[in-house]
Amino acid sequence: MSTVGTRLPFWKSLGWGEAAFEIASPFLLVWAGKWFVGLVHGFGHLLDNDNVGATVVGTLFFGVVAIAGIVGVSMVPEVLRRLVIESACPCCGARRQRTFGDPAKSDASPTECGECLAYLRAKGVEVTEEHADAADLDWLEYALPPERYLPVVKIDNRSHFKFEMPAMCAICGSPDARQHREIGCGSSGTTQDPSRGYDDKLSHLTAPVCKKHSEAEAPSGDVLEYRSGKLMFASYRYYKAFCELNQIGGAKPPVTG
């Protein structure tokens, strides 16, 4: 199932902060470049007693400015290749503007619907749901935030969140899933982050896997992670099955367009 949308200019994907950074980055490079050219011209006097402090501080400051400029300029090609499409979601019908990564890149991330639980891909102006077989042990693209699961989740006698796990491999969907892998920890940041309080309630979870995707056969990566309260899934099939089994839903507005 797919929908056809309208492509918008790439700058529609930019927030004010990102747009300002992209515009400023060439000027940052020029500014830093002028400083370093000046250093070369005045090299014989840089370490004079009157200059050493300003030289060290200025070099550190303009080094950071140069790095920021390089990062901003290097992001320009990626920004230009973004697909910004206004369309209905092929799953729930919610019409909105969504930004998609470069479809020519094999590692481009899918885009959340923003209303329902679906993740979407775009090719040209055609928008489709993520393929059911999509899975990646390294990136774990499919996020389930607390706002989605808190209304329905139960708590066990150890104050853990209680979820049902689909009886299939959490990577390939095989029904022969007799082994389990523990949930990984992908959280970062400070413990003052309110959502980090949910991590302890998620840290006991395990996911069923087949022998091919067991810890012994495929030791790298995680099939399931918690990240500051979010549940992150490596497999789109398993993510959808988990949400259905645990009756975790999303907004389902009427189909439009």
What does this structure look like?
- With about 260 residues, the chain is of the alpha+beta class.
- Helices cover about 30% and strands about 20% of the residues.
- The strands form five sheets. It has a four-stranded antiparallel β-sheet, with no helix packed on it. Strands 8-15-14-12 form a four-stranded mixed β-sheet. The protein has a three-stranded antiparallel β-sheet with strand order 2-3-4, with no helix packed on it.
- Residues about 250-255 have low confidence and may be disordered.
Question: What's the SSE blueprint?
Answer:
Blueprint: E1 2-4, E2 6-8, H1 16-41, H2 52-81, E3 83-88, E4 95-100, E5 111-112, E6 119-123, E7 126-129, E8 142-144, H3 146-149, E9 154-155, E10 161-162, E11 179-182, E12 184-185, H4 199-202, E13 206-209, E14 224-227, E15 230-233, H5 236-245
Parallel strand pairs: 12-14
Antiparallel strand pairs: 1-7, 2-3, 3-4, 5-6, 6-7, 8-15, 9-10, 11-13, 14-15
Helix pairs in contact: 1-2
